[in-house]
Amino acid sequence: MKILRSGLGIILGIGAVVILAVAVGLCNLPWAARWLDVGTSPQSADVIVLLNGGVNTRPFVAAALVRGGWAPKILLNTVTAHASERSGAVPPSFVITLKVLDYCNVAVDRVVILDSLAATTFDEAKAVDKYLADHPARRLLIVTEGPHTRRARWIFQRVLADRLVEVGAVSSPTDEFDNQNWWRTEAGFLFVVSEYFKLLYYGLRYGWLGYEIIITAAGIIFLRVWFLRRRKQNRIV
Asked: How far is 142 from 120, CA to CA, in rounded Å?
């Protein structure tokens, strides 16, 4: 019965999104990225959670927040090594991040390394949850690229639901694209579209089906973007 109700909710969600998209034309391309970006202006927090990746931008934003007095510490997870990292061809991303933070004059005692070997944002959230069990906080700020902030905040809010901690997000810049032109580059297209699929995956994987509208919007927006991109390519050919 529960599965049936969830299935009905998804079907109704799809119908609602389709009707809304047709009625008011929300499925325009800039909106697709802006909706994902829930980053806000910095607020005072107990800790900053610097998500791994985006070494060209994320560490600089986190460093600016600490040096600006918005939070006293940065939490940084270790990550599962990729093949190139295991071979020694490149250093792990969190090692690069540490070097950037040092370059930005962030003192070593301001950075807490969580030895989690995280592979996903969910893994990072679980590691932070474990840390907060011994180091309670009232507010934390997540630092990641704008299109990643909605999913990251959503995951942390779910994982930390029992901690009664306020979860905010500060958007770092993105390489090669922004919310207004993301579909014009391959990097932007893959980033934004993949975020919708990841929202869908997390909703189904962890049973977070209270977000039917968000989850089903992923498929609608992807199809819309795919259609427009294909049409443009066909015109060029």
From this structure: 15
Instruction: Provide the 8-state DSSP code for 134.
Output: H
Helices 186-205/146-159 angle, 10° precision: 10
**Local structure of 51: helix, strand or coil:** coil
Strand ranges of the sheet holding 111-118, from the earlier edge strand across to the other edge? 111-118, 74-79, 47-50, 139-145, 166-172
d(CA 101, CA 235): 46
Res 2 pLDDT > 80: no
- Single out the residue of 95, 101, 66 nearest to residue 82, CA to CA: 95
What pLDDT score does 26 carry? 46
- Return the higher-pLDDT residue of 60 and 181: 60
- What contacts 37, CB < 8 A, 6 or more positions away? 146, 147, 149, 150, 171, 179
Q: Which CATH class is domain 47-172?
A: alpha beta
pTM: 0.81
Tokens read off for 163: 């901690």
For 213, half-sphere exposure in the C-beta direction (CA atoms, 13 angstrom radius) is: 6
Residue with tokens 């989690």, as numbered in its chain? 116
Q: Which helix (H) or strand (E) holds 208?
A: none
- Considering only the C-alpha atoms of the chain, give the largest distance between any 2 of them, rounded to a whole number of Å: 60
C-alpha–C-alpha distance, residues 198 and 229, integer Å = 20
Contact 171, 215 (CB under 8 A): no
- Terminal C-alpha separation, the chain: 50
Q: Where are the domains of the chain?
A: 2-36+180-236, 47-172
